[in-house]
Design goal:
The structure holds two protein chains of two kinds. Chain A is built from seven helices and ten strands. Chain A is α/β, with parallel strands linked by helices. Chain A has a six-stranded mixed beta sheet, sandwiched between helices. In chain A, strand 9 and strand 10 (219-225) form a beta hairpin. By secondary structure, chain B is of the alpha+beta class. Chain B has two domains: 2-53 and 273-406, no CATH class; 61-266, no CATH class. In chain B, a hairpin with a 2-residue loop joins strand 6 (179-182) and strand 7. Classes of the chains: A alpha/beta, B alpha+beta. Chains A and B meet through helix 2 and helix 3 of A and helix 1, helix 11 and helix 14 of B. The structure holds adenosine-5'-diphosphate (ADP) and magnesium ion. The site of adenosine-5'-diphosphate (ADP) has 12 residues of chain A, from strand 2 and helix 1.
Chain lengths: 229, 408
């Protein structure tokens, strides 16, 4: 059983007089522990696919099995639980709560699954330690650099020990050096056993993954596997 | 439970971060609750005051008079046709009513009261039987009421209210035995009543009681305004006693079997019921006005909460994307609304009680803080918070996570 199994997936937006197929018949499998990059030009459906995999969105057609469970059959609360426990999402725009400290931002997913105060604190500190921000726990996002903010977001994605980490253009708002650092961190997470899917439109970044999926016009154009030493 | 503490924390944070918006909400609730509480507290105090006044008429006591409770001009015209009650009626009741402990009579007049150069005009001058003091709860401060002997011999004696003493005998502590002039005739003071204070701007200590016989001698026969005050021997059977009195009076006054009484029997209870019935309309109207102000406050809250939700769309998206369920979002916004309304309610309740106390002081009504008014104030604000907070909260919870995240 694959961790992710997507079969003939469609996402169609009804724009009144025309229909936009953001995804067309996408079929793919991703195994536990894989490091997958998704590439493609702007508007090719990368984010749409990530949102579907991350259970933030529901497909118009097709089947998505996560850990052997059919996502289509889940209700709102079950989807929320999946987002909370199974998925760690890292966004291009960080999406941190602006008025909360790093620590609180990282604790947030734990609050929604009822972890005790002490447990929350301990796990959040550990996650912040992993991304190298032990000394920035009480800082609010506006007191942090872009790279540091993305580290906080990664710590938040990690804190519940999810099945998959999804990163949609995590370096899109960062300069090259900082972006490289973040990618290094994500690669390190994969090395430690996390399943990682990264969206990027830079081949230099995608190259670090063992598998690259190319999207164009909502379809999988080709896949590239390679041996990484 | 953990999540609830979290919701309170988030609520407080949001409230603190938007001080202007929060103050507006609090002010909205504040004025609503303020008006409701002021009105309820004052009305309650007024009713309590009337009830206390009526309690001078104990549970075993009732009055018989010509007019009863008049609520319309027709009532008045009908009652005017009735025969006056007379001293003889009183005698007949006293003789015939076995269950009556005391049968007293009293008649109202107004006159001037003078001592040396001091003069009071338009003082209520009650003429009564000597047992009036046994029926009506006058508390004696000094001296005594007048006696049966004094009554029989039409003596010029007076039992006076404390205001009379204060006005006519400034500085004198004990004016017992001193003489005053009532409408030109000299009277000796036998006793002074205990101070009762004012009630709704009405000084209850400004009166005199003289023997009814003396009053008849100098002021003439009583007409409409002679009333009987009767105390039953037994509290439990007071209605039977009333029936006895009723049949004696009907027989004496020649009322036909099918006709209504040509007199009225009043009890503290019936008077109170009447007062409640005439103030009901006022209370309903005022209550309506107060409710409208609460609804206005509620709509203000709803609007402000809607603004709060739309401003925080992105935050809602973030929370949902990391696993917040609908109920978490609902709780968060509902708590925010509840904290604001309860705060407004608390302030409004306190200020309302304060305002009622000030107004009460001006109208000489005793206002006390009742559990009822506090409970009403707080539950109104709670209900308003829930009712008007739930819609924005549900709206927030229904936001689509992707769209919410994309919101700028
Ligand atoms: N909410 C939406 N309504 C209408 N069209 C949308 C919506 N979201 C995405 N699309 C369209 O779907 C296509 C894929 O979008 P997206 O997945 O965001 O592309 P990418 O992330 O690869 O740049 C685009 O043509 C985009 O315009
Ligand atoms: Mg995109």
């Amino acid at each position: 059983m694959s961790l992710i199994q997507v079969d003939n997936l469609w996402k169609t937006y009804d724009m009144g007089n025309e229909q936009v197929n953001a995804l067309q018949s996408v079929t793919l499998k991703i195994e536990k522990g894989e490091y997958v990059a998704i590439m493609g030009p702007s508007g090719s459906g990368k984010s749409t696919l990530m949102n579907l995999i991350g259970c933030l969105d529901t497909p118009s057609q097709g089947v998505y099995m996560l850990n052997g469970n059919d996502v289509a059959s889940m209700d709102d609360n079950e989807l929320a639980r999946i987002r909370n426990k199974e998925i760690g999402f890292v966004f291009q725009t960080f999406n941190l709560l602006p008025r909360a400290t790093s620590l609180h931002n990282v604790e947030l997913p734990l609050i929604y699954n009822g972890t005790s105060r002490e447990g929350r604190r301990e796990k959040a500190e550990k996650a912040l330690g992993k991304v190298g921000l032990s000394d920035r726990m009480m800082h609010q996002p506006n007191e942090l650099s872009g790279g540091q903010r993305q580290r906080v977001a990664i710590a938040r994605a990690l804190v519940n020990d999810p099945s998959i980490i999804l990163a949609d253009e995590p370096t899109g708002n960062l300069d090259t050096n900082t972006g490289d650092e973040i990618m290094g961190l994500i690669q390190e997470l994969n090395r430690q056993g996390n399943t990682v899917i990264v969206v990027t439109h830079e081949y230099e970044i995608a190259k670090k993954a063992r598998r690259i999926i190319f999207l164009r016009d909502g379809k999988i154009e080709k896949e590239e596997y390679k041996q990484v030493g | 439970m953990l999540i609830d503490i979290e919701a309170v924390r988030i609520g407080l944070q949001a409230i603190w971060a938007n001080k202007l918006r929060s103050s507006l909400t609090i002010i909205g609730v504040f004025f609503g609750v303020l008006s409701v509480i002021t009105i309820i507290t004052l009305m309650q105090a007024m009713m309590d005051g009337i009830e206390e006044q009526l309690s001078a008429l104990g549970p075993s006591t009732f009055m018989v008079n010509k007019f009863g409770i008049i609520t319309s001009r027709e009532d008045y015209m009908d009652a005017l046709k009735r025969k006056d009650l007379t001293v003889e009626d009183m005698g007949a009741v006293e003789e015939g009513c076995l269950d009556c402990e005391y049968v007293a009579a009293r008649c109202y007049r107004f006159g001037s009261v003078k001592r040396k150069s001091e003069k009071l005009r338009n003082v209520p001058i009650l003429g009564s039987t000597a047992n009036f003091i046994d029926v009506i709860d006058f508390q004696v401060e000094h001296g005594r009421f007048f006696t049966e002997m004094e009554y029989q011999h039409k003596r010029q004696v007076a039992f006076v209210g404390p205001t009379i003493v204060e006005e006519l005998f400034p500085g004198v502590i004990d004016p017992l035995g001193k003489t005053i002039k009532i409408s030109g005739k000299k009277y000796k003071i036998t006793g002074i009543a205990k101070k009762r204070g004012s009630m709704m701007g009405n000084n209850q200590d400004n009166f005199l009681v003289i023997p009814l016989t003396t009053q008849i001698k100098y002021f003439g026969k009583p007409r409409h305004n002679l009333a009987l005050a009767i105390k039953a021997k037994n509290v439990e059977t007071v209605t039977n006693t009333q029936d006895q009195v009723r049949s004696i009076l009907r027989a004496r006054r020649g009322v036909d079997y099918y006709d209504d009484d040509d007199f009225s029997i009043l009890t503290a209870e019936s008077i109170m019921a009447f007062v409640e019935s005439i103030t009901l309309m006022t209370r309903v109207v005022i209550g309506g006005i107060a409710s409208i102000s609460m609804v206005v406050g509620g709509i203000v809250i709803m609007n402000i909460m809607m603004v709060s939700v739309s401003e925080r769309t992105r935050e809602i998206g973030i929370r949902k994307s990391i696993g917040a369920m609908r109920k978490n979002i609902i709780t968060q916004f509902l708590y925010e609304a509840l904290i604001l309304t309860l705060l407004g309610g608390l302030l409004g309740t306190s200020a309302g009680i304060g305002l009622a106390a000030i107004l009460g002081e001006m109208m000489s009504i005793d206002v006390s803080v009742t559990f009822l008014s506090v409970a009403i104030g707080m539950s109104i604000s709670l209900l308003v918070g829930l009712f008007f907070g739930i819609y924005p909260a549900v709206k927030a919870a229904q936001l689509d996570p992707i769209e919410a995240l994309r919101y700028e």
